[in-house]
Amino acid sequence: MSPGGGTASRVAFGSLAETDRGRRDEIEAAIGRVLDSGRFILGDEVARFEESFAAFVGAPHAVGCANGTDAIALALRAAGARPGDAAILPANACVPVIAAVRQAGVVPRLADVDGATLTLDPSGVERARTPETRFVVAVHLYGGVADLDGLADVARAADMTMIEDCAQSHGAEWRGRKTGTFGAAAAFSFYPTKNLGACGDGGAVVTADPEIAARLRQLRQYGWTRRDFAASEGWNSRLDELQAAILAAKLPRLEEENARRRAIADRYDAALEGLPVRRLSIRPGSLPARHLYPIRAPRGRRDALREHLARRGVETGIHYPVPLHLQPAYAFLGHRAGDFPVSEEACASVLSLPIHARLSDDDVELVVDAVRGFDFGVVEGAGA
Ligand SMILES: *Cc1c(COP(=O)(O)O)cnc(C)c1O
Asked: Which of 23, 81, 247, 320 to pair with 378, CA 20 to 30 A apart?
């Protein structure tokens, strides 16, 4: 999240201030261009960014919207979700995923994740399915790629439509194709901390289907097909010109920044080998975006490890502390502790180490040394 938090961290979890000279100039030029144009909503900047982002993902259409949560809700609705339909989503995810499903008027059906990647387990999807379940939301959590083959098989067999949540996976690939090209539609967030982040809120839905794209364009602006004419009921969820211009300025560096994230992750992988912390498995055939680098601490030791790292000046995060089925807001779903044991265990043990494109090699070594310096004690049942 945001740097700081009161303590003088030596290695901040994130770095959002645009202090990088070349990049600062490009962002300021983009902002200046919009101010000069006097057009702030749905103009050339949004159209241009949509085109370049679609090209980046390798999909025919990208439709900008206000944020990633709206993008998921818009994707569901544009892909045909009607009130009363249900959608399966992982219990190990952040709150916006379930908030978006509800926003779309869709009934959330939670399912557990697999213990190696912490993404949706296709066999859990099969168990969670009801006759009303028409959608599966594949969340590429942490920038790792969900089991797209397995999920597509289950979805096909049960006549469900797959939607991808790519809010953490900009640029990640499965068998050489980017995430966002496998579902009927894919939601992206440009929240400032994401791999591609705006200087404010932003989102997009990507699709290969021209009818879905047309519905998205209506839905994001009051259901209008032309000014002041509503063909369908819609929302207001637009990407604004300033954010689009900023995103277009930042997009050309995304691949390079993802490569830096992967290099850092590789270094962490090598350095943590042999320690009693579990690392995330990267699915063979995938290229992760490494949005986050969660490790799993030995049972009951996560908070002590986190405090130890904080004392050594290393800021960490927890993604996520509470699984969706145990969030008070969703108690009405009727779940209880024990329903999704893999997600519960993940939430109790995950700790995210700093990983971002501007983290220096020295910072990475400082993190590595700090983790190695923790007294893991005698740990039973741990292993990589
Ligand atoms: C960030 C995020 C969202 C929500 O995006 P916002 O732009 O914050 O609304 C949805 N899903 C996942 C997996 C995310 O990481």
From this structure: 320
Q: Which residues of 59-96 are buried (b: 16+ CB within 10 A; e: fewer)?
A: bebbbbbbbbbbbbbbbbbbbebeeebbbbbbbbbbeb
Q: Which CATH number fits domain 254-372: 3.20.20.140, 3.30.1490.20, 3.90.1150.10, 3.30.300.70?
A: 3.90.1150.10
Residue of 89, 97, 240 with the most ligand 1 atoms within 8 Å of its CB, for mutation:
97
Model-wide pTM > 0.90: yes
CATH class of 18-252: alpha beta
- Amino acid making up residue 379: V
- Which amino acid is it at 259? A
The CA R_g of the chain, rounded to the nearest whole Å, is 21
The residue nearest atom 13 of ligand 1, judged by CA position, is 167
- pLDDT, tens only, 140-190: 999 999 999 999 999 999 999 999 999 999 999 999 999 999 999 999 999
Tokens of 84: 């009363």
Cβ of residue 189 lying under 6 Å from some atom of ligand 1: yes
